[in-house]
Design goal:
With 463 residues, the protein is mainly beta. It folds into 2 domains: 44-141, Sandwich (Jelly Rolls); 146-463, no CATH class. 0% of the residues lie in helices and 23% in strands. The protein has no helices and 22 strands. Strands 11, 12, 14, 15, 16 and 22 form a 6-stranded antiparallel β-sheet that branches. A 5-stranded mixed β-sheet has the order 1-3-5-8-9, with no helix packed on it. The two termini are 61 Å apart. Mean pLDDT is 87; it is low at 290-297.
Length: 463
């Protein structure tokens, strides 16, 4: 093998110099560099991501990070063969765009105007052709080639439904996220958060209100059927951390009233909490007070809450049903309760439910509890958060009213029937109690029914 060592090679005649013969490959030795031959059509990548607006240099590629806001990239003055490449660094160009601005009177694809890059994980290479077209895109990838990552978590009772995991909490616990996933796989979770139901009142007691009912639409985890309350409600983003879960306890029904004694409203249920979602406990049902002269009969109204507690009868005027969706959220987490009956009808109002108000009482008519809401977040259509029914009385209302669908307790019948409790882990209200039958001592419990405890369910894609 011959070796030629020279400092310069020049053509013997003409302006063309040929190196090698047809079919040969001309290579540079390891470590050698070239100059004067022009670029090879690729760029040298700057691996320090750009986080603010900048002017590009021909021959360079840039990773552009728009996590903190939109960025403007000004192209260099164009000359034939100039080349610039740009790449979405943090998969955020769809949220915060990149604006590409030509230099001076240069053009981008034939127009002296800005171009916008707004696709997640996009990459683009621009080459300056001539003054007519200016910069042209020779490579534009809009495919997201991010690695797929899914939410990974523990806590509660875990079941699966196809590619989705379901965490059910019937008591306090922690939803522990070890991997927050990404947008290619999953990085949000759907939820159902139901608070504890309110207890029923006694002595013509109003029904307890259902606990607040809040849920997302289900679009992030399999498009299961959610209730109307979840329509257009987004799933929650998560990060790698522990999320304490609070499951609201049931509200206690008003206790049995002794003859001639003073009754009290049922207790409100307790709140349920997951992340930024708090559902309010259901309002306690009201009770007629037996104390005070006829001019001051002690009218009682139901308590406000996620759904309101029912109003009771009183000779001084009907007690009002408690307000639902208290405190207010959107969509509403519950409904108002029914009012107590007027005059001597002794009717009691029904507790509010997740999707319907409690029924108002009328002469010799006691109110039913409002209906609950149905969701398939746990892969089985289940109705929860029904209001408790109002109690019966001795005057034309021998039976208590039914509770609302989803587990609302029935009102106690006259004269000494037991009020129904709200079903456990549905957040339903307890039924109103018949209360004091004007005899002493009491031989049969006839106070208001306890509400049902709440529940928290979380669902997400895991594979």
């Amino acid at each position: 093998m011959s070796k030629v060592e020279v400092n310069q090679i020049s053509s013997q005649c003409g302006s063309t110099l040929t190196v090698g013969q047809s079919g040969d490959t001309v290579t540079l030795a390891c470590g050698a560099t070239q100059s004067g031959f022009g670029r090879t059509g690729t760029v040298d990548w700057d691996t320090t991501a750009k986080t603010a607006s900048f002017t590009a240099v021909s021959g360079n590629g840039y990773f552009v990070n728009t996590t903190s806001g939109a960025i403007t990239v000004t192209l260099p003055a164009g000359s034939a063969g100039s080349i610039v490449s740009l790449k979405d660094y943090a998969n955020t160009w769809d949220t915060n765009n990149v604006t590409v601005t030509p230099n001076g009177t240069d053009k981008i694809n034939g127009a002296n105007a800005n171009a916008t890059l707004n696709t997640q994980d996009q990459s683009v290479t621009l080459v300056y052709v001539d003054s007519t077209k200016g910069w042209r895109a020779v490579q534009d990838s809009t495919s997201d080639v991010s690695g797929i990552a899914y939410v990974t978590a523990t806590g509660g009772t875990i079941t699966t439904c196809g590619d989705y995991k379901i965490h059910t909490f019937t008591g306090p616990g922690t939803f522990c996220v070890s991997c927050a996933g990404n947008a290619v796989g999953s990085n949000t979770v759907d939820y159902l958060v139901v608070a504890g139901g309110g207890g029923g009142g006694t002595r013509y007691g109003g029904g307890g209100g259902a606990g607040g009912y809040r849920e997302s639409s289900g679009a992030a985890s399999g498009c299961y059927t959610a209730s109307p309350l979840g329509a257009c409600v987004s799933a929650l983003p998560v990060t790698a951390q522990g999320y304490p879960i609070t499951v609201g306890a049931s509200g206690a029904g008003s206790p049995t009233q002794s003859s001639g004694g003073t009754s009290s409203n049922g207790s409100n249920g307790a709140n349920s909490i997951f992340s930024t979602i708090t559902s309010a406990g259901g309002g306690g049902g009201s009770s007629e007070s037996a104390s005070g002269p006829p001019a001051n009969p002690g009218v009682r109204s139901g308590n406000p809450g996620g759904s309101g507690g029912g109003g009771s009868y009183s000779v001084g005027g009907a007690g009002n049903g408690g307000a639902g969706n208290t405190p207010p959220v959107s969509p509403p987490q519950g409904n108002n309760a029914g009012n107590g009956g007027p005059g001597s009808g002794y009717g009691s109002g029904g507790g509010g439910g997740a999707t319907a108000a409690g029924q108002n009482a009328a002469d010799s008519v006691t109110g039913s509890g409002g209906n609950g809401a149905t969701s398939s977040i746990n892969a089985t259509p289940t109705t929860r958060a029904g209001g408790g029914g109002g109690a019966g009385s001795q005057d034309g209302i021998p039976t208590g009213a039914p509770g609302g669908s989803g587990g609302g307790g029935a009102g106690g019948p006259s004269p000494n029937g037991v009020a129904g409790a709200g079903t456990t882990n549905t957040g339903s209200g307890g039924g109103g109690g018949r209360g004091n039958p004007d005899t002493s001592p009491q031989t049969t419990p006839n106070g208001g029914g306890n509400g049902g405890s709440g529940i928290v369910i979380i669902r997400y894609r895991y594979q």
